[in-house]
């Protein structure tokens, strides 16, 4: 029988070993994030499916160690895989000089397009900024 408290400690060891959050771990083994939270807190016991997903996704985790705490973690014959996949071909790198030139050209083009007489007669009434976290700010004249 699996001791929930001891299992949650071993699960935390796995998270620390890979240096990942519970949310990233849940996504990796394709379970709900709340499942990880409930198991770590001791509210729920791990299901067989949950345990098998861990062992299949993370080859360093030995099944016997995960369930009973006996055995080795990480397995000595398995190398730690990289957390992020490496691309097949490296992405092209833009030099700082080219980036600076592009920015200067873009800035001068924008300045020229707004210096026309049709924009000089118009006044800005409101500007709204939308942030990535779903919030916004509105500024009115």
Automatic annotation (TrEMBL):
Annotated PROSITE patterns: HTH_CROC1
Tree of life domain: Bacteria
Pfam families hit by this protein: HTH_3
MF terms (GO), sorted A to Z: DNA binding
Region named Disordered: 73-97
InterPro entries assigned: Cro/C1-type_HTH, Lambda_DNA-bd_dom_sf
SUPFAM superfamilies associated with the record: lambda repressor-like DNA-binding domains (SSF47413)
HTH cro/C1-type domain location: 25-66
Gene3D superfamilies recorded: lambda repressor-like DNA-binding domains (1.10.260.40)
Protein name listed in UniProt: Helix-turn-helix protein
């Amino acid at each position: 029988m699996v001791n929930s408290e001891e299992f949650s400690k071993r699960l935390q060891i796995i998270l620390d070993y890979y240096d990942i959050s519970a949310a990233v771990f849940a996504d990796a083994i394709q379970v709900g994030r709340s499942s990880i939270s409930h198991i770590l807190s001791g509210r729920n016991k791990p299901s067989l499916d949950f345990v098998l997903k861990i062992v299949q996704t993370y080859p360093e985790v030995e099944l016997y160690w995960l369930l009973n705490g006996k055995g080795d973690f990480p397995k000595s014959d398995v190398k730690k895989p990289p957390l992020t996949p490496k691309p097949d071909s490296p992405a092209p790198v833009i030099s700082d000089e080219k980036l600076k030139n592009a920015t200067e050209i873009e800035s001068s083009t924008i300045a020229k397009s707004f210096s026309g007489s049709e924009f000089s007669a118009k006044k800005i009434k409101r500007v709204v900024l939308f942030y990535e976290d779903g919030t916004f700010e509105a500024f009115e004249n």
